[in-house]
């Protein structure tokens, strides 16, 4: 599997997980974040990161998921009926860039 394909698969998984977490009450999310942290830490160590760096990587991933959940919550309006398996809509710029920074 190419790096690009692996990254795309990972981002889809993170998105689906964030959608599911956004549907939970806030007080029920911590155990899920802990599971993400442990899984990421184990995976990082498995690919050769030392335990300290793996812990930092795992914490960064949890913070990313938390931020994504926050974005989902802010954006969840009347059309929040999209399922966790559906990717978010991608805006089309129409060939002209806006002043916004692209990531």
Structure report:
The structure is a single chain. By secondary structure, the protein is mainly alpha-helical. The chain is built from three helices and no strands. Residues 89-103 have low confidence and may be disordered.
Topology (elements, then pairings):
Elements: H1 3-23, H2 30-46, H3 51-75
Helix pairs in contact: 1-3, 2-3
Question: What can be said about this structure in brief?
Answer:
This protein is an all-alpha fold. The protein is built from three helices and no strands.
**Ends distance:** 24 Å
Structural class: mainly alpha
Question: What is the helix content?
Answer: 55-70%
Mean pLDDT reading: 81
Q: Tell how many strands the DSSP assignment holds.
A: 0
Succession of helices and strands: HHH
- Strand fraction: under 5%
Shape label = globular
Largest sheet: none
Using only C-alpha atoms, the radius of gyration works out to 16 Å
Q: Which ranges are low-confidence, i.e. pLDDT below 50, for 5 or more consecutive residues?
A: 89-103
Q: What is the number of helical segments per DSSP (H or I, 4+ residues)?
A: 3
Key structural traits:
mainly alpha, 103 residues, single chain
């Amino acid at each position: 599997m190419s790096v690009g394909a692996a990254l795309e698969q990972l981002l889809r998984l993170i998105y689906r997980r964030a959608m599911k977490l956004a549907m939970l009450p806030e007080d029920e999310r911590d155990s899920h974040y802990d599971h993400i942290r442990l899984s990421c830490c184990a995976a990082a160590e498995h690919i050769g990161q030392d335990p300290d760096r793996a812990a930092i990587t795992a914490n960064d991933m949890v913070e990313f998921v938390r931020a994504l959940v926050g974005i989902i919550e802010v954006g969840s309006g009347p059309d929040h009926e999209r399922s966790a398996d559906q990717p978010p809509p991608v805006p089309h710029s129409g060939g002209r860039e806006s002043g916004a920074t692209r990531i």
